[in-house]
Structures are given as C-alpha cells and as structure tokens.
Amino acid sequence: MDASKKQLRLLAVEDSDDDHAMLLRELRKAGYQVEASRVVSATELAAALAGTWDIIVSDWLLPGFGGAEALTHIHTREIDVPVIVISGTPGEEAAVAALRAGALDFLAKDKPSRYVPAIERAVRESADRRARLTAEHELRLSEERYRTGFVVAPEALITYDVDTMRILDANPAALAMFQRSLEWMRTMPVGDLTAPVQANGVPRAEAAADIIEQLRANGGTIPSYEWLFVNASGEIIPGEARFVQMPSERGHLSRLSIIDLRERVRTAEIRARSVELELQNRRIQEASRLKSEFLANMSHELRTPLNAIIGFAELLHDGHVAPTSPQHTEFLGDILTSGRHLLQLINDVLDLAKVEAGKLDFRPETVDPGRLVTEVIAILRTQAASKRIRVTTEVDPAVGTVHIDPSRFKQVVYNYLSNALKFTQDGGRIIVRVGVEDDAHFRLEVQDSGSGISAEDVGRLFVEFQQLEAGASKRHQGTGLGLALTRRLVDAQGGRVGVRSTVGRGSTFHAVLPRQTRAGLEPTARPVPPPRLGGRSVLVVEDDARDRDVVVSLLEDAGFAVVVAQTGAAALAACAGRAFDAITLDMLLPDMTGLELLAKLRAEPRTKATPVIVITVVPDAKVVAGFTVADILHKPLDRTDLLEALVRAGVHPDLPGGVLVVDDDPTALRLMDATLKQLGLAAITRSTGAAGLEAAAALAPTAIVLDLMMPEMDGVEFLAKLRALPDHARTPVVFWTNKDLTHAEQEHLLATAQGVAAKTDHGAHGIIAQLRQLIADRHGVT
Questions:
Q1: d(C-alpha 425, C-alpha 384), whole Å
Q2: Can you tell me the distance from the alpha carbon of 244 to that of 636, in angstroms, rounded to the nearest whole number?
Q3: How far apart are CA 471 and CA 475, in angstroms?
Q4: CB 195 within 8 A of CB 229
Q5: Tell me, what's the pLDDT at 216?
Q6: What is the pLDDT of residue 325?
Q7: H-helix or E-strand spanning residue 112
Q8: pLDDT of 187
Q9: What letters, b where the CB count within 10 A reaches 16 and e where it falls short, cover 724-747?
Q10: Per-residue confidence (pLDDT) for residue 422, from 0 to 100
C-alpha cells in the first residue's frame, strides 16, 4: 500500500458494476487508496455494517431494495457514518426524500466529476462532527468529574461572586457546617457566616471588608488564613480559609475552601490538657516529696526542744538537782528556752495554716516602723552578740508613721533578721533599713554579709517546706517555714517580697508593704461535711421480707432512723452516699455472701469502723472469721438482744432529755458523744443548725452544746431561733468553739448563753464541768 496516497474505506450499495467501477475510478484519479465493498441487498448491508467505514455511497433505486431502505437501516443501527445518495434518475422529490432520510448529499450518476468533492466534504464534515461530539462528551465528563469532586469534597466549598458579594453555590460539606440550605446561602449577606468578632478582636464588618478588599486587589485569590465562622446554632467555628480565582466569562468568581479546625482545636486542647496534667502530677509528686522532707524535719525540730523540756523536768521532778543549787536555776532556764523555741515552731505552723485558710486577722494601728524594728533587734541582741555580729538600722525620716498591724510587721522583721543571723558568719554585719517605696508603700530591707545564695537556689526561697539545706546533715536548725510565712503575711496585706544575693558577698531580703493595711482578711468558705439531719441511723441488710420487717420495726420503735438494703450491691450503694451509726447484716444474700459484703465494707474508709451486728440462723463466731463485728445474733430475733447489742456497740437512740450537741465537725460530734456517755449523759448529735432546732423541739434536751462557727446557720443565729421556741427560753446553752475570742466577744455571747468553752481546753472535758453545773442548777441539785 502506497503510504503517500489518501486512505478511504468505502461501502457501496450498488447493483450496477459499471456505476461502481466509475465511482472507484474517480476516487483513484483523485489520489485515494480505496478499500471498497459492495452490497446489493438488506442482508448484505446488515452484515457489512459490522465493519468500519469512512463513507457509504448508495444508489437510490435498486431491485427490491433502494436508498431509502438503506438509509433507514443505517440509522436504525445508529451507525455514525456519512451517507451520499447517487441516482441515475435524479429528481427534486427523490433528493428531498434522501436528505430527509439522513443523506448528506444527493448526486446524479451522469455527473461523476462531483463524486470526489461531495465525498471529501462528507468525510470532512463527519470528522468535524465526531470531533465536536467527542469534545462535548469530554466536556460533560469533565463537568461531571468537577461536580462530583465539588459535592463529595470533605472541606466546605463555596463559590463566591466578588462583584455582587453573593454566594452562588455551596457543597454539602458547607451546608452541613453552617447548618443552612443552599437557597438561604444564595440570598444571605456573605458576612452572616462570619463570627461577630474575630480572634484578634476585630469586629465582623471591619474584618470582612478587609477580606473583600484583598480579594479585589489580588484578582480573587488569597492565601490561606485563619478565620472564625458561625453556624445557624450560633456556634463559633474556627477554620482555615482560602480564596482561589475561578475562570469565568462573566464577573469575578472565587472559590472559598474552608477546613473545619474544631477537631484540630479539640485535639490541641486535649494535648495541652494532658501536658498540664502531667505537669500538675509532677508538681504534686514534688510537693509530696517536699512535704515528706518537711515532716521529717519538723519531727526533728519539735522533738529537740521537747526532749530537752522532758529531760530537764524529769531531773528536777525526781529530786536529782537541789532547788538551791545553781544547776536548778540553769535547768529551769533551759526548760524555758526550749519551751519558747517549741512555741515559736508551733506558732509558725499555725500562722501559715491560718493564712492559707484566709483566717488570719490584721489589727492595724498607727505606729513608727523604726521603733518596731528596734524592738525586734532588742529581742535578738543576745543571739547577735554570741556570734559577734553587728546589727545597725537605717530609717528614712520620710517614712514617718504607717497604719499597719505592729505584731505582724515585727513577725516579718523577726523572720528576716533571725534568718540573717543564722546564716551570717561570726563577726559579720547586718543592716536593717526602712525607707519609702512610693506614695502608698514603704520598704523593709535586711542586708547581711553572709555566704550568699546561688541563682539556682533563689527560686526555692519563700516556698513552703523547702530549705536550701535538707536532711540530717544540715548545719542550721529550722522548719523551712519562716520565709514562706513571711511571704504569705506580706502578700495577705497587699505587699510583695524579694531577695538580691551574690555568692560570697551576702544577701538582701526585702518586703514592700502598704502604708495603710486593711483591717482583716475575708475568711474562705469552710467545707461542709455530710450533715447529720435526723436521729441515729442503722442500715438493715436483709433479703427476707419477714425478718426485715421485724428488724425495721424494732429499730424504728426504739427511735432509730432505718435504711433498708435487700442485696449486697444495694448496701454498698447506700454506704457510698452517707454514713451510718450501725449496720445489721444477714449472712445469706442473693447476690453475694455476708462475708464478701463485710470484706468490702471494711475496705472502705467510711465503713471501716462502723459497728456491724450479724443476724444469722447459725450464731457461730466462725461465720465471720477474720473480721471484727460488734455482735452475732440468732434468728428469730429478740428485741432486747438487738437493742442491747447496739448499746454495747456504743450506738444509743436519741432519747428525750439528753444533751443536744450541734456541730458541723463530725470528729467533734464523736468526741462529745463518747465523753458524755462516759459521764452517764445521753447525747443527741446534729451537724446543722436546722437539724438541731428540729431535735430541740422534738426531744426537749436538758442542755445544749453549740458550735459557734457553722455554715448556713451559725451558733448566734441558732441561739436566737432556739430562744423563740416555747420550751427553750431558759435551756442552758454552752458555746464550744475553736475561735480565739476577745474579752468583748465572750461578754457578748454570755449575754444570751450560759457558758463559753474552747475546744482546745483538754478536748471535750473542758466543757463537762460547766454542763454538770448548769444541769444541776436547772434541776435544783446542789
């Protein structure tokens, strides 16, 4: 085959050999290499159409088969091949019919010169049409692929008209993110998708206008930026947005893509929280370690003076030292010195606890700070002289007088000065300065010539339980609380502390204090323990209905509050929610044995010491082997046995005429309960003022012991409401409190109560003498 010739695949529907030969001759004359096939019937045409052809040339009239039938057959088969009709009897009607049937041209056989141009035009137009159809098909596929990508894209996509500032389209991810319909988004102002205020504090309108300006200046494209969006629910959505210009024949279109950062933000928050928890855990571990060191150190510091006190006192008590000997006086001095040192240690701990609890009061007075400094120096003069340390003062006259708590200021000076004396070598020098800081503050400085403090150790100063020297080998005594307490005292007055130090050259500690100190600190809220609202309570663990009814009836008739549990699980749940005075326990339960329940009760701090009375059909101690129980009773149960068992366990029902104790501290209630029982007095204990008033009205107590500081209703308010009850206008009341009362406060309380006792005075016994006398006076007993 000549490669230089044009190729043409021709299918001819022609019954005339001469006409077919003429067609081929014309094509070959025009330079075509023709691959031709000729058919004369519908059957042959159907078979031939299975091949590939560039053009089909058909005669219009054939015996039994013509051009019209051939065109119909070709189009029925949807063959995309151009068809030209050549007829020996051309006519207008035949031509119109052929063109309507789908032919591209209608030629006369007597004009063979027109064959080649018509065929070339038909082939060319067919190729152009196929190319156009292919391009249109590819365009449709491209549009479908684009639309599919737009619809299924995980990020929110929005098509935006920069000129009209309107949304034209949004994919499902965008509709879901903003909780809006496409119709709503097409009609809404685009700014409605933006949060009212951006992360940098810029209002919505200003921030949106800046973005629009950037869009227009950059041709509709903006690199990625972070933005706060808002959905229909008002939820603020952090996102990463990006505008990209889109090709368009009209206007300026941009595609806005939004990556939802909510999950990323949540992950970052979780990660940050994990890091924070890890840091907190490390701080807790470090605090635990420091507290352990502190307790070990405190144990040593407390035992040292205490051992001296006991040792010298034993020598004097046993008569080993004559009262007239110089050694007797010396030993008494040692006892006095050790006692004062022990008191100072205890006061430091208590003061620190008071500051932390917000209960340390300040009583400001107008004083001369220079005079207070001189008084402190006088106290420590002996210690300074023993080390040949020179202590001088420098007081700026411009300071004048200040309105501060003198005792707390002297405490700060004492802590700084004693610390300087401790760490300054023999023959050193200490300077105490008082000067003006600013119009509202003055400054205290204590400068020493000691060994100084390294930079890495400065951060450990003023921190509770930390000492630069630790362990048994430390050279200087102390608890490590002095500087920490100083910081707390100064902070509580609105001041600040600090230190400058150079190793080998000494240190300067300072405190900046306000010239006007407020009168006191607001106390922090006290934690409220679970209240004891009713009478003494007993948990009855019994699954048998008849036995359960018997136990409940006996206890309720005796005045106990009863809670019932039919299973071990129910018993554990009841104990998790409240404390009981006693528990009665059946050994055969539906979900666990009595031993299993007893083991779980003893493993919990709340029920570890709760009296348990076992009620079983087999009264053998072996049934509770390994566990401590108050008693083992036999079924069927006797009323007297159960009540006596409760009394032996220390659980008495609330009886009329007892002593009512109202206190929110459960430890204080237990202590008073035990003390009153030992003295033969019945106790009625309640942990809230409201419950105490109910008990007073129902049980007519002989006397009342009342805590002064309680949540919701304090002792003073309780007493006022008590006196309003018809039968309690003259009931003896004794306040029992931890509060350090002034003489004026005691006088105020005694105007309505019959006694005031401190909880620190020998436990509960300090109040018993008052109670006995008050009860005796009320009943006329001498």
A1: 11
A2: 89
A3: 10
A4: yes
A5: 80
A6: 82
A7: none
A8: 86
A9: eeeebeebbbbbbbeeeeeeeeee
A10: 85
Q: How far is Cα 195 from Cα 235, in angstroms, rounded to an integer?
A: 9
**Cβ distance 654 to 684 under 8 Å?**
yes
Model confidence pLDDT, tens digit, residues 109-156: 888 888 899 888 988 888 888 888 777 777 776 666 666 667 777 888
Residue numbers of the chain with a pLDDT score lower than 70: 1-4, 141-149, 248-251, 287, 289-304, 337, 340-341, 344-345, 347-361, 459-460, 463-481, 518-535, 618-626, 655, 667, 678-680, 740, 759-766, 768-769, 772, 775-782
How far, in Å, CA of 517 to CA of 369, rounded?
A: 13
> Closest Cα to residue 511, out of 405, 424, 371, 413?
413
Backbone angles phi, psi at 101, to 5 degrees: -75, -10
Q: β-pairing, 733-737 with 703-707?
A: parallel
Residues 376 and 416 sit within 8 Å (Cβ to Cβ): no
CA 771 to chain centre: 50
Per-residue pLDDT at 414: 86
DSSP class of residue 516 equals B
Q: What is the pLDDT of residue 306?
A: 78
**For position 775, what pLDDT does the model report?**
67
Contact between 731 and 752 under an 8 Å Cβ cutoff? The reply is no
Residue 527 has a pLDDT of 34
The CA distance from 586 to 530, in Å, is: 27
Give the separation between CA 278 and CA 130, rounded to whole angstroms: 71
Strand segments, DSSP code E, in 194-252 are 222-230, 236-246
DSSP 400-463: --EEE-HHHHHHHHHHHHHHHHHHSPTT-EEEEEEEE-SSSEEEEEEEE-S----HHHHTTTT-
Neighbours of 394 (CB within 10 A): 13
525: exposed, middle or buried (C-beta count within 10 Å: 0-12, 13-18, 19+)? Answer: exposed
Residue 528 vs residues 251, 271, 663, 665, 669: alpha-carbon distances, Å: 70, 35, 11, 8, 14
Q: Phi, psi (5° rounding) for residue 631?
A: -170, 160
Backbone angles phi, psi at 708, to 5 degrees: -80, -45
Strand partners, 512: 443, 496
pTM over 0.70: no
Measured CA angle at 498 (ends 495, 499), to 5 deg: 155
Q: What is the distance between the alpha carbons of residues 262 and 233, in angstroms, rounded to a whole number? A: 15
Q: What does the DSSP assignment read for 360-376?
A: -----EEE-HHHHHHHH
